[in-house]
């Protein structure tokens, strides 16, 4: 969709007739490039004014486009197949632990957290940074793995587990963090496929909100290892590169006190929307997260601890992470704030980027070369257009990326199929696999990478068939139905503690943190009958 | 596919231009019927010879076609929705047992087994017959539920469970039968999508054979209830109405000693193929099943018991059931033999039907009106063409159905969507649901039907959304992958007793039957290294 729109745009610029492409798999790149060279009208009055700029622009667009969709040579996988004994590899891998002992990084956490913009840490990738990136990526992945996607479920759009059990249920018990707060979001603009629950579900836990992420904080052991108390916000994104990105590209709107900094209206709507008539968004996601982060920062600072804030997210979640970082930097000056995002789209304009930088927010964007989402919005109108100012005029409406980039390539991994797969290229598990195997741009896949390769296929079909891992295998037994004592297949009731509640204050976790969660003032007016 | 072919055929007969239909969902029936009336050429030399027959044929085809694809009125489901309180229905159903106490039918088993051709038992449907039909249908369903569909599995195409545990694993422990033998089949003709295992699986349990069904026998308790020792053969079919039915319609070939009886070559190939180089088909499915049935009949007759043979199957399995019945009747004269089939295609010609009848085989075909498979092969060239003998000439090549028919209608159930759904209409669970609810052609769905409604959606999307049952919910947790002690997602090894073995002789079951299974003579030459 995005690609065909892009193709049409390109043709319109050239005033060449649009060719109806049979599909993204077989875009006739050579034909298009040949077309450009011959078909750019030199004397056409309508285009004369900007013909030079247009020509250069078209060339650049074609180049950009080529980058998006080039696929590896056909014999790519065969080559690997010849040198890899898949069966023995599988056997060997199956009995290798996925984790190594964790290094102590307390003496270099500032650098790993981006204090120098990750200079000299990305290529080659510093082993300690690699592990930290994967750690934060797994926080983002947790927001997918625990999400209730069942559109017939009364809890569709919520987290399937209580926050005190989230990491345990996902096999992340030993990650050294504890969840302190769930974040919910709604939106004041209509976003297709964002609220997927069926209209038939009248007893829904919420009609307007989705579970959008969580706040967690390092425990004492992890805090000693990493040299500071680390507060993490993890934002949920979208699993597949869906069309609603297009819908969200409506307009940039101002953010903060500056008149110049602008961000995408759709992202901002999710981050800031609230409504007194809802159960979970009497306060906005922004208010929820800032209240919790402020509380935690205050609590640990009062104890004399060094504190950092790390915000992570994939896709849409990466966009929300930047908005969150912007607000946190303005609200909590002096706090070291980093964003580690995966496959995130552009969020705002150049002034937004500059203000983030001035406030000291450090951003590391992990981007897979073949993934299209991190090129959106602003697939065409982005920072690369600065040289075309005869066309673009002002840069106020030009989207731009922020911070340092760790660029990954699907072709670097011998375990991945190279064929065009928009969902697979965008999948967070593909990102984490590629981070785990990345040494440097000039060397091959890390031979001693330990992350379980099978995870890549959880929600896509990216692994070479030789590995014999089913595609999209992450699924519940019988889609959650169980056979009851009468022999009937029913959806079991959730454990009461796993039922979302806007007034939840779970004592397990807060006991261990010596914190008492405060009820949300807005929510304390809730009718008792509403609390289920 | 079949439908569009059918549409083209109809048009060719009328010599009217073919209209490219947008899809099976919106076949322009009225237009077609209108077309016929005006477009039949009266004077065209090419068609004059058979114009009268062709016209009548076209009319008949249109009528047939109309029967296939007519959908219920648009407000069908809405009407039901207005009178059904889905939530309270769901609550109530969830706590109602799915089984009633079984009646003793020992005094009327001959009639229920078809001794009088099920006369006066089908409309209204006798309650005891209804339960027996469902019982046999669940044997057929078991062949789907236990089949290993995983194309990456080394056991793809086998049964996932040992025969002594089959019913237990599927929640059918109390059905009163015990499995004594598994049947394997291969084919000497190429049947697309029949052997689905990946070419990458070099360690496959078998390269040529599929698990194709089982033989089971009633235990003492059930034998007393039903009045005889009941030997059952259950044949596996295909879950969806796949295109390979078309491929199998190659030619009729002779069967048995008669020169006239003919059956479809493809079905016969599956039933009779064998090869000494295979592991599981050194003997054919026919030889395997006849050896076991003969053994069981002899064993129980020697004990002075009354014995019956009931053969069941859905889809392709129903076709194999008829071939099996034909052979059994010829081999074991005097044995009461019934076939109860579900959505089975036509198998042979009229002589085949007549011979089956003469040998005393009783056949009850359960057919859903909207299902297309039971109209194949011979969707057009079948017994309804007897009146068009100026066109068809001889009837030797005309497919025909056999026996009595229990006709069901998707629209009779308020729980089912009416919209065109070829997979759903053909699904065996849909059939069993409709049998369970059938009273008579003139009355509505049985209000006290107890079979669990959720089962319908196991492998399709037929239930109205109001029931909030996920579609295609019958699935393994994580497609069978489990996280091992190293944190890696792997396919666990099968329990040794669940690994298929051509020489299997399980003592559990045979102890309880006081039978010692004899090793297959062919298989006893197997190299020890082959037995895994």
From TrEMBL, chains A, B:
Superkingdom: Eukaryota
Molecular function as annotated in GO: galactolipase activity; phospholipase A1 activity
Xref: InterPro entries: AB_hydrolase_fold (IPR029058), Fungal_lipase-type (IPR002921)
Keyword vocabulary terms for this entry: Chloroplast, Hydrolase, Lipid degradation, Lipid metabolism, Plastid, Transit peptide
Principal place of residence: plastid
Gene Ontology cellular component terms for the protein in this record: chloroplast
Residues in Fungal lipase-type domain copies: 232-379
GO process terms (BP): lipid catabolic process
Signal peptide segment: none
Gene3D superfamilies per record: alpha/beta hydrolase (3.40.50.1820)
SUPFAM superfamilies to which the protein is assigned, alphabetical: alpha/beta-Hydrolases
Subcellular location: Plastid, Chloroplast
UniProt similarity note: Belongs to the AB hydrolase superfamily. Lipase family.
Name of this protein: Phospholipase A1-Igamma1, chloroplastic
Gene expressing this chain: LOC107413864
């Amino acid at each position: 969709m995005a690609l065909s729109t892009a193709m049409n745009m390109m043709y319109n610029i050239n005033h060449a007739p649009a060719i109806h492409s049979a599909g993204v798999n077989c875009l006739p790149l050579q034909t298009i490039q040949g077309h450009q060279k011959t078909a750019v009208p030199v004397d056409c009055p309508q285009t004369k004014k900007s013909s030079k700029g247009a020509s250069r622009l078209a060339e650049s667009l074609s180049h950009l486009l080529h980058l998006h969709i080039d696929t590896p040579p056909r014999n790519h996988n065969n080559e690997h197949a010849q040198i890899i004994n898949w069966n023995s590899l599988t056997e060997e891998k199956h009995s290798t632990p996925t984790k190594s002992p964790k290094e102590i990084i307390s003496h270099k956490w500032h650098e790993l957290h981006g204090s120098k913009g990750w200079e000299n840490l990305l290529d080659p990738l510093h082993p300690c940074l690699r592990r930290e990136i994967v750690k934060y990526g797994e926080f983002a992945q947790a927001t997918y793995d625990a999400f209730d996607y069942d559109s017939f479920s009364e809890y569709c759009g919520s987290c399937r587990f209580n926050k005190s059990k989230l990491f345990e249920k996902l096999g992340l018990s030993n990650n050294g963090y504890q969840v302190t707060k769930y974040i919910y979001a709604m939106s004041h603009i209509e976003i297709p496929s964002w609220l997927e629950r069926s209209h038939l579900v009248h007893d829904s836990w919420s009609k307007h909100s989705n579970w959008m992420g969580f706040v967690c904080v390092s425990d004492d052991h992890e805090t000693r290892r990493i040299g500071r108390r680390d507060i993490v916000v993890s934002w949920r994104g979208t699993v597949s590169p869906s069309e609603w990105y297009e819908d969200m590209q409506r307009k940039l709107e101002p953010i903060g006190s500056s008149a110049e900094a602008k961000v995408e209206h759709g992202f901002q709507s999710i981050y800031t929307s609230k409504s007194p008539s809802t159960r979970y968004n009497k306060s906005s996601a922004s208010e929820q997260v800032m209240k919790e982060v402020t509380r935690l920062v205050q609590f640990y600072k009062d104890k004399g601890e060094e504190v950092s804030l790390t915000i992570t997210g994939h896709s849409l979640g990466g966009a929300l992470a930047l908005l969150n970082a912007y607000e946190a930097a303005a609200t909590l000056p002096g706090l070291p704030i980093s964003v580690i995002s995966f496959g995130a789209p552009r969020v705002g304009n150049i002034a937004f980027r500059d203000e983030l930088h001035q406030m000291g927010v450090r951003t590391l964007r992990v981007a897979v070369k073949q993934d299209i989402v991190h090129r959106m919005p602003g697939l065409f109108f982005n920072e690369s257009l600065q040289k075309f100012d005869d066309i673009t005029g002002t840069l106020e409406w030009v989207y731009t990326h922020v911070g340092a980039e760790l660029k990954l390539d699907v072709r670097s991994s011998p375990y991945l199929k190279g064929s065009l797969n928009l969902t697979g290229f965008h999948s967070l598990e593909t990102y984490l696999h590629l981070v785990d195997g990345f040494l440097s741009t000039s060397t091959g896949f890390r031979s001693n990478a330990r992350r379980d390769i099978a995870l890549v296929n959880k929600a896509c079909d990216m692994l070479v068939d030789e590995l014999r891992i089913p595609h999209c295998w992450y699924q519940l037994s019988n889609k959650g139905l169980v056979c009851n004592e009468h022999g009937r297949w029913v959806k079991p009731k959730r454990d009461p503690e796993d039922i979302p509640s806007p007034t939840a204050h779970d004592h397990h976790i807060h006991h261990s943190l010596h914190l008492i969660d405060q009820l949300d003032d807005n929510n304390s007016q809730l009718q008792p009958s509403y609390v289920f």
